[in-house]
Amino acid sequence: MSTASLVSGTSFSMLENFSFRTIVEYLPLFGQGLVTTVWLSALSFAGALAVGIVLAAMSLQRGWLFRVPAKAYIDAVRATPLLAQLYFLYFGLPHLGFVLPELVVGILALSLNSGAYVAEIIRAGILSIPRGQVEAGVASGMTYVQRMRLVILPQAFKVTIPPLLGQAIVLVKDSALLSLISVSELTRAGQLLASDRFMPAEGFITIAAFYLLLYYGLKGLAALSGRWLGLQPARSST
Amino acid sequence: MTASPSKNGTGMIEFRGVNKWFGALNVLRDITLSVEPREVVVVCGPSGSGKSTLIRCINGLETIRDGDLVVDGQRLGDPATNMTRLRTEIGFVFQSFNLYPHRTALENVTLAPIHVRKIPRNEAEQAGRELLAKVGLADKVHAYPAQLSGGQQQRVAIARCLGMRPKIMLFDEPTSALDPEMISEVLDVMVAVAEEGMTMMVVTHEMGFARKVAQRVVFMDAGAIVESGTPEEFFSQPKTDRSRAFLSKILRH
Predict the structure, then answer these.
(1) pTM, whole model, 2 decimals?
(2) Cα separation of the two ends of chain B
(3) Cβ(B115)–Cβ(A143) below 8 Å
(4) Digits of tens for pLDDT over chain A (238 positions)?
(5) CB contact under 8 A, B91 and A236
(6) Which long-range CB contacts under 8 A does A123-128 form with residues at least 24 apart?
(7) Nearest CA in chain B to A132
């Protein structure tokens, strides 16, 4: 029994019978799923930032000791499907003695995956700061940490905001995969509707609409932060 | 040759047989040079002669291969020398200013005093305002670097160095990136700093500046100090063919 044949065979009648009533009926479930998607994505993105900052710092070291493992990790994550990584953690961690709730495994997987991409964004941001800025900091007696904190990161931050928000959008959509390890997020709500009532259109079009909503939310945030950051240099007029 | 007018060990900056290579290129050859406290030394020479590298070694922006380099009594490369600490005593003015673009003029001046020297913020800010006034930028305290002309930026950069109350100021072609009409405003500030008794090494081709405040001109070519003397001697009676050739080129126009 496959939903695929059901969809292709009856697509016309399916759309003719499109049931808004069922969607409304399931709205509380979608609502819960949406809320879960939002907070688990937020948490995962925070995790991705933490992972990404550490990886970026490691990959910028001159010595191989930190740089090589960071690069290997980033390559491994970028070269393999997120689904494989998710299953790797979901089925693998219990073998190592870590039995964690699905939600935790999901957040972990998203953080570790997105962290690799965030690391590359941060690394590129830091490398985009001219060498003279580092030298100015060095020449005034700043330590590495002071230089990073006072000179490099504030400037890198500005150029990384737009790509980081892009990565956040990707993460929100990727979180749909967590439905496969039965985390009750937005996509899972759509799946439930689709399988309970045999109404895939109602299920998946609705979640698509909600993802679109989240996308515009994040995009608005990006525009807002862009305006806020863009304002900074023009702010003062002595 | 020796460029030291005094006995060993008394200089604020002491190069003794310093060599440096970039790969196979010997960019500094057997440099021996002593700069006394309160002395102003101008370094000139053709492009690629190693002048910038020479002064970049003094605050450790470049490292040396062999020989001794002693700055303010501390030997560079010695494990006992705290390089970060030593750098707080050395101001460095870059050709391209390198102001912090995300900080105002005042913040550029106060950043290191507050975070490195640990001077209280209000004290650092008052000193910063005074320094900006001294370089003629009292009305640009809250301007961002992008809102300033090249000459103004370089004056902020000099104020930024002075804010650390350094013992030594190094200038790496401070006016080379400037439009001609802005050069004198920067040189005036440098003259004022020199007249207050700062120990200075200045890589520049500004001969007016050299004649006015330098005690000594050092001429470099191909990584070596070829000639050294008072500005008067050097500009009117260059001793070597290479310095004559160089001077004829920069004096032609």
Answers:
(1) 0.80
(2) 32
(3) no
(4) 445 445 555 555 556 678 888 889 889 999 999 999 999 999 999 999 999 999 999 999 889 999 999 999 999 999 999 999 999 999 999 999 899 999 999 999 999 999 999 999 999 999 999 999 999 999 999 999 999 999 999 999 888 988 999 999 999 999 999 999 989 999 999 999 999 989 888 889 999 999 999 999 998 887 887 777 764 443 433 3
(5) no
(6) A123/A56, A123/A59, A123/A60, A124/A160, A124/A163, A125/A156, A125/A157, A125/A159, A125/A160, A125/A163, A126/A56, A126/A60, A126/A152, A126/A153, A126/A156, A127/A60, A128/A156, A128/A159
(7) B98
User: Which residues in chain B are closer than 8 Å to A150, comparing Cβ atoms?
Assistant: 111, 115
DSSP state of B140: G
CA gap B117, B126 in Å, rounded: 15
ipTM, two decimals? 0.91
Q: What is d(CA B70, CA B32) in angstroms, rounded to the nearest whole number?
A: 11
* Strands B168-172 and B199-203, sheet pairing: parallel
Q: Delineate the domains of chain A, giving CATH numbers in brackets.
A: 27-225 (1.10.3720.10)
Nearest CA to B155 out of B173, B119, B182, B121 is that of B182
Chain B residue numbers touching A129 (CB-CB < 8 A): none
Contact A73, A116 (CB under 8 A): yes
- Scanning B27-95, the segments in alpha helix (DSSP H) are 51-58, 83-87
* Cα within 13 Å of Cα(A155), Cβ side: 20
Q: Best mutation site among A128, A134, A140 for testing chain B: the one with the most B CBs within 10 Å? A: A140
